[in-house]
Design brief:
Layout (H helix, E strand, L loop, with lengths): L1 H5 L2 H13 L1 H4 L23 E3 L4 E4 L5 E12 L2 E10 L5 E12 L4 E11 L11 E4 L5 E4 L5 E4 L9 E4 L5 E4 L5 E4 L7 E2 L4 E3 L3 E5 L7 E9 L2 E6 L5 E5 L9 E3 L3 E4 L9 E5 L5 E7 L2 E7 L19 E2 L5 E2 L7 E3 L9 E3 L11 E7 L1 E3 L2 H7 L5 E6 H9 L6 E5 L7 E7 L5 E3 L6 E8 L3 H7 L6 H19 L2 H21 L1 H5 L8 E2 L2 H7 L6 E5 L2 E7 L5 E7 L3 H14 L10 E7 L2 E7 L7 H4 L10 H21 L3 E3 L8 E3 L5 E3 L6 E3 L6 E2 L17 E2 L2 H16 L22
Parallel strand pairs: 2-6, 24-33, 35-39
Antiparallel strand pairs: 1-7, 2-3, 3-4, 4-5, 5-6, 7-8, 8-9, 10-11, 11-12, 13-21, 14-20, 15-16, 16-17, 17-18, 19-20, 21-22, 22-23, 24-25, 26-27, 28-34, 29-33, 30-32, 31-32, 31-34, 36-37, 37-38, 38-40, 39-40, 41-44, 42-43, 45-46
Helix pairs in contact: 2-14, 7-8, 13-14
């Protein structure tokens, strides 16, 4: 039967190509949705619900990159003008759907949009192109689609009785129902700006752009946290550079412990907005006659210039006179740019866990880190080690592959037992006042054993000598003939060996763990997942739970159950995806290897697995043909990366809809690498035992000599399921011969 099934794949390929080339013919055409609303509601988006991105206005922009606008809707408030539309570069290859705040410049020939400020964007991470569309559909969902049919963004308001779209005088884009109640609003989904009257509450955050010309999400963020508001690096875990006191107020904002609200100052007649910049500064800007002026730097009274995470870039030191310089050890660090020292420094040799014996420290005396004191209060015990010895601080960093540096503070009494902060990411360092006793230890990768000995702090050697001690003890016991002592020593040895293996799991994993992964403790994950109470799904090796990090980021925690197979699955999955990154592979954030616990932490995928959508009960809310085609393309790109572009060829061996996850925009990502196999690039096949899922097994499994074609076969089955809208094996079929999906081609 396996051989016969091969004959169906030319037919399968033909069907897929036919769907791609004629997707508009086989799908139902979109109807224009014209709606009429009460004239008493001002500022509605006209009678059309369909807008094409065809720029028609030039702008006098402060940003030399963006200069064209496709207007959708406009609103005036006193001196302020708000425009909702597409904001494009001059080639119209990158366009953002957003809200612009601007003033009109009056020319003799025509009026020009003068120096617009992008105060909100729907698709900052996914720019669209010329002829992209925005549509408010019959179902009440506002959807942004790129010119190639790719779904980029939506309000997820399907079935919520939306009757209209409005841009308010405050610059808030609103979807409302027949009773004029707000169903969705842009104020609830801020990007990097707050307009006067806009609130920031727990669960939302401002995220700075990468740069002035790149509006995608950067590293710095601001949010409300535990009765205060905080500014931090949006990393895992976060690193804080400002943490407010409760009920902090200013002329430009108010804070009541739960809500941070931007205010107008001094009067409502001024045009203002608040923005967190790529440098981490939170500033208020105001229009003044001909240009935007900075009127307040909110954090300047509390954060010194060298206290911002990116002021000098990664691994660079911000000196007392405001200059940026790399660590003096030129054999380990060099600047990214001699002309622009504030871009930071790079390590000449990357840190690899599989050569941890060559890890050592570069010592920077009288140097500290921007988050040192705030992390003391906010971060978990695995990063902050209070009242510890210097040697213990160094060892803790060396034994943790995720640790890239340690910051140590000596006490004023020089007892040698003070505070230690471990860093998973290293941003700007800061000169410390001489004599304050702060030292930064940067982990580096040495290229020789001699070089390592000069800097490295050796790890405890007791575990290595334990077998020798046991042999000596056993010999002495035999010599004295004390049988009971021999038995006792043997029991104690076995117990200690078992405990040592459990407590030193990181050493077993060190050769394969990439430095970007975060190590979580089991207790941390219990808190993050609310004691594993929110189950997302269940598979062959355990359950997956939903969790939320302290910065509000949702994650998926995979708890592996069992013994031998689980350890193999854990190691295989970490090896496969721990050190690679691709947009169509689910990102592995961290892990837990504590005693018998084995857990993997992944990015959270809002729309779950593909199998839930293939046979969606309500087909009106199911996958469109464009979305199906994009999902197929995403899976193919992910497999091509695994098979061709990785340093090792990775064969997944379990491609099926349950292992294809969908994000909020229905972008597909391959997950679950527990059964995968890594082979050298120059090898074309590998011998292994049969593994995978019934119905997706290729004919090659009969010989146990497999190639990447087993993934291609399984992908073909998944492709067929997507196109036909039914499962591969459907046991509800009346005729037994129709159970298998391939039977439709008989």
């Amino acid at each position: 039967m396996f051989v016969e099934k091969r004959l169906y794949f030319p037919i399968l390929l033909f069907i897929y190509l036919l769907c791609c080339s004629s997707r508009f013919a086989i799908s139902q055409p979109l109807q224009d949705y014209n709606f009429t609303l009460s004239n008493s509601i001002a500022g509605l988006a006209g009678i059309s619900s369909f807008w094409n991105n065809i720029p028609s206005l030039d702008v006098n922009s402060t940003d030399s990159f963006f200069g064209l606008v496709t207007p959708i809707h406009q609103r005036r408030n006193a001196g302020s003008l708000f425009l909702c539309g597409f904001y494009c570069n001059y080639n119209v290859t990158e366009c953002l759907l957003g809200i612009l705040l601007y003033h009109i410049k009056h020319n003799k020939e025509n009026d020009v949009i003068n120096k617009p400020q992008l105060v909100w964007s729907a698709n900052r991470n996914h720019p669209v192109k010329f002829n992209a569309t925005l549509q408010l559909g019959h179902d009440g969902n506002l959807v942004l689609t790129d010119s190639d049919g790719t779904l980029v963004w939506s309000t997820n308001t399907t079935g919520k009785s939306v009757s209209g779209l409005n841009l308010t005088e405050m610059g808030n884009l609103v979807l409302f129902d027949k009773r004029k109640r707000t169903i969705w609003q842009s104020f609830d989904h801020p990007t990097d700006c707050l307009l006067p009257g806009q609130n920031l509450v727990s669960g939302r955050k401002l995220i700075a752009s990468v740069s002035a010309t790149n509006h995608s999400q950067g590293l710095l963020a601001l949010s409300v946290l535990n009765g205060s508001w905080a500014a931090y690096t949006d990393t895992v875990p976060p690193q804080y550079y400002y943490y407010s006191s409760p009920f902090a107020d200013s002329s430009y904002y108010s804070f009541d412990g739960q809500s941070f609200t931007a205010l107008h100052y001094p009067t409502n007649s001024t045009t203002q907005f608040m923005k967190i910049g790529p440098d981490g500064h939170l500033k208020v800007y105001q229009w003044s006659v001909v240009d935007w002026n900075e009127v307040s730097d909110i954090l300047s009274p509390y954060v010194e210039n060298c206290g911002y995470p990116m002021v000098c870039g990664s691994y660079s030191i911000c000196t007392n006179n405001g200059q940026c310089t790399c660590p003096p050890q030129e054999n380990f660090f060099r600047p990214f740019s001699e002309r622009k020292p504030d871009l930071g420094c790079s390590q000449l040799t990357s840190i690899y866990c599989n050569s941890s014996q060559y890890h050592s420290f570069v010592e920077l005396k009288n140097t500290t880190y921007f988050s040192f004191y705030i992390d003391q209060e906010l971060n978990s015990s695995r990063l902050w080690l209070g009242q510890t010895k210097l040697e213990d601080c160094k060892r803790a960093c060396l034994s943790n592959c995720s640790c890239k540096a340690a910051v140590f503070e000596y006490g004023w009494n020089w007892t040698g037992r003070e505070n230690c902060l471990l860093l998973n990411e290293v941003f700007s360092l800061t000169d410390s006042e001489e004599g304050r006793g702060k030292t930064v230890f940067l982990k580096v990768q040495n290229t020789s054993e001699a070089q390592t000995r000069s800097l490295i702090i050796p790890l405890p050697g007791g575990k290595k000598s334990r077998p020798f001690k046991v042999i000596i003890g056993s010999t002495l016991a035999a010599f004295f003939g004390i049988i009971l002592s021999i038995a006792t020593c043997f029991v104690i040895f076995r117990k200690r060996t078992h405990e040592s293996r459990n407590s030193a799991d990181i050493w077993d994993l060190a050769p394969i763990l990439p430095g970007i992964l975060t190590r979580f403790s089991y207790n941390e994950l219990k808190i993050i997942t609310d004691d594993f109470s929110r189950k997302l799904g269940e598979g062959g090796f355990g359950c997956v739970y939903e969790g939320t990090l302290r910065n509000g980021t949702k994650i998926a925690v995979k708890n592996l159950d069992g013994v031998g197979q689980v350890k193999e699955s854990f190691l295989t999955e970490v090896k496969a995806v721990g050190g690679i990154h691709h947009i169509n592979l689910v990102k592995l954030i961290g892990f837990c290897a504590e005693k018998s616990h084995r857990l993997l932490i992944y990015e959270y995928m809002v729309n779950g697995s593909l199998d839930r959508w293939i046979t969606h009960e309500n087909q009106e809310n199911g996958l469109t043909w464009n979305t199906r085609q994009r999902i197929i393309s995403d899976i193919a790109k992910g497999l091509a990366y695994l098979h061709e572009d990785c340093s090792h060829k990775i064969i997944h061996l379990d491609i099926k809809p349950q292992n294809i996850l969908l994000d909020q925009y229905f972008n597909a990502k391959i997950s679950d690498f527990g059964l995968s196999k890594l082979i050298e690039k120059d090898k074309s096949k590998v011998v292994t035992r049969m593994r995978g899922t019934r119905g997706y097994l290729a004919p090659e499994w009969l010989s146990s000599v497999i190639t990447e074609k087993v993934d291609v076969y399984a992908f073909g089955i998944v492709l067929l399921e997507i196109l036909c809208g039914r499962k591969n094996l459907d046991w509800s079929q009346a005729d037994e011969e129709d159970v298998h999906l391939l039977s439709v081609f008989r």
